[in-house]
Amino acid sequence: MTSATEPPTIPRFLTDYTPTRYRRRFTPFSRVPATGHMGEVWHVAARRNPAQLVIVDRPCDIDPDGPVERTYAEWATLVDDAAAWLHAAGVRAWDRVAIMKANHLDVALLGCAAARIGAVPAMLSGTFGPEAARALLTRLERPFLVTDRAHVDSCGIGPDVVAGLTAMTICVDSYDERPDLVRLASLKGAPAVAPALRPPHEPMVITHTSGTTGIPKLVMHSADSAYSLALVEAERWPKFGLRADDVMVFCDPFCHQRMTTGLPAMATVAPRMLMLSDPRSPAVKDLLLRHRPTVVETLPNIYLFWEKLARDPARPFAGVRLFINSFDAIHTRTIRTFLAATDRRAPVWVQSWSQSENGALVIRPYLRGSVKRRGLRPPPTQVLGWPLPSVAKVRAVDPATGRPVRHGEVGLIEISQPGRCLAYVGEQDRHDLKRNGVWWNTGDLGVINRWGAVRLVDREIDRIPGGSAIELEDVLLDRLPQTTEVVILPVAGGLPVPVLSTDEDVPLDPRAWAAATVDLPPLAEPIQIRWEDFPRTGTWKIRRVQLREQLLDGAQAVGIGRWT
Questions:
Q1: How far apart are CA 36 and CA 230, in angstroms?
Q2: Burial group, residue 356, by CB count within 10 angstroms (0-12, 13-18, 19+)
Q3: What dotted CATH number matches 12-225?
Q4: Which of 49, 102, 385, 420 is the most buried (most CB within 10 A)?
Q5: Once rounded to an integer, what is the mean pLDDT over residues 488-510?
């Protein structure tokens, strides 16, 4: 552990953490990130391509009367303005600034503004409710909180929370009934403040894991770790590297660690960006048709939700040359649908298996021929890809002993690469449990094949004895095109339970189900619910523990969840 001598008012987690391995570049010829620091990404992009546009799907909540189209230079000015507002509120170096508001690019702008004046932003999702909100604020040790009226209500930010868990709570919209909340409007017009970026090895930003199994973990990164993780995105990859003439659609949650590594790549290349805050908005189709993207990145379950849009006769994805999905495995049906939705001769899909703690773990490209066959077991997308040669290593270990297993055997997947997170804020014991020297336990069960590629089996807590829920979900979605979601819930002492939804909630034909499952391992009778009734995280992942509790009273998982 590293320690630094700091004033006693600074929480220990900001001065006592596990250092990361830093890497400057992949090769002598690599394009490297222009910066790794959130506090200057917009200003660097403005210097490199000041007139290029970044477009949002609705006005910023922190500037509701402002335009939805601004140049990089204009966005940098808004970051400066926000930094002045936070400074006027009393935010200083080392203060934590928790940001928990409606999903929008301005979540990241506020984070950049806080980092620009030496504070440590903590960008949080409000989808977990009051219990998680209180837990996360407690771990941050009296942060300044920037929120909105909707989250004040849904996350239980009452006067007791404001007084006991925050240094100050700033509301971006009006809430006249709550005099304990500081209105953001009252801080506007504050004088500009000089930038004061933290050194690159020190904590820069805190985000959190997806939280599929409970209250999420707070993950802390530095500018050095963000830079090291952004190397893969800044690189000039043949066919799928980002280019300055691209029009990129980005529709991830702006509170997630994905922004920490995505912003340096954006600052380096400075393409035109279309930043979408709500994938369900009717405005999405119009924006796609108006701006004709060449690159699209979003979450696996948002792609799944967009399948109907991809089949639209207007062909809003006709010009896309590159699709990117991060976070988790993508469904085969989804890749096939989107590669058919573009008029490009040889579009590429890049699957990146990623975690908040380590960024991209392994990467795999797909062409149309990769996903041509339907209903395969195991599905092609279950092989997630390879770690970066000469940069990262993966291995599978026995869950009980921690010893490496042979190629082809199921084990817990461990990764070793530069840029690993510094800490789990307030839960350093969990962080230490998952690291073993340079190796990090991902908490996922998988197989490393003879070619060094990782085939994901399941999260350890979601494992199915002798099978794979991930495999069965992909196969069923491919064989049942009317389904809009399929989740397999393992149950200790019983058959795995399929839970599914369908287009327009049409009841699933029992004969279609029987035909789709004839060669699959035994499953319990499927439970059909509405798509809206699947509990989701801020990253649209299914909260499987909550879904099991919601549908299967008293049922227990098979895995132990030690490494989640």
A1: 8
A2: buried
A3: 3.40.50.980
A4: 420
A5: 93
